[in-house]
Amino acid sequence: MSQSILIAFDDSKSALRAVEVVANQFRNDNRVTLFNVTMDTAALCKMNSPELTPYFKSQQKSFCLLEDKKKDLVGEALTKAKDVLKQAGFSDDHIQIKIQTQKNSVAKDILEEAESDYDFIVMGRNSKSSVKKFFIGSTPLKVLNHAKDISLLVVD
C-alpha cells in the first residue's frame, strides 16, 4: 500500500541524509513531498521607510542579494534531492516539491502541512549544540512534541 511521506527539507546535509534514507529504506511507490519553509524576507527588500536605521538602509541591497543566493542554493538542493529519489526508482509523478513562506514557526508550519494527509514526517536532525537545543529547542524536537497521529522519523 502506497503511503504519503513529508520530508522537511532545507539545504542542509542532514536534510539530504533524510532524503537518502527515504530513497533507500522506503518503497518507491510511495508519494514524497519535499517541503521547504522559507523566511519571508521579500518584504524587507522592498521596504523604504523613514523608520529604517541608516545602517540597514545602507546594507539592504547586500542583504537582498544574499537572500536571492540562499533561494538559489535551496532550489539546487531540492533538485539534487529529487534526483536522489528518482535514482532510487521514485517516479516523477510521485515526487512533489513544495516551498512555503514561513507563516508561524518552521515546526508549526511543518505540522500544519503534515495535517493534509501524510503518513510520515521525515526530517534531519539539525546540528545545534546541546546548550542551544536546551534553551531554544530544535525543530525536530518541537515537531516530535506536537505531532499527533503521524509517525516521525528523525535522521542523524
Give a quick set of tags describing it.
5-stranded parallel beta sheet; 156 residues; single chain; 6 helices; alpha/beta; Rossmann fold
Structure explained in plain terms:
This protein has 156 residues and is α/β, with parallel strands linked by helices. It has one domain: Rossmann fold, CATH 3.40.50. The protein has a five-stranded parallel beta sheet, with helices on both faces. The two termini are 27 Å apart. The model has no long low-confidence stretch (mean pLDDT 85).
Name the strands of the widest sheet in spatial order: 3-2-1-4-5
Subunit arrangement of the protein: single chain
Main sheet properties: 5 strands, parallel
> Into how many domains do the coordinates divide?
1
Quote the distance from N terminus to C terminus.
Answer: 27 Å
Poorly predicted spans: none
Structural class: alpha/beta
Helix content: 40-55%
Extended strand count: 5
Number of helices: 6
CATH architecture: 3-Layer(aba) Sandwich
CATH T-level topology: Rossmann fold
CATH superfamily: HUPs
Strand residue content: 15-25%
Query: What is the global morphology?
Result: elongated
Q: Which class in CATH terms?
A: Alpha Beta
Specify Rg, calculated over alpha carbons.
17 Å
Q: List SSEs in N-to-C order.
A: EHEHHEHEHHE
Whole-number mean pLDDT: 85
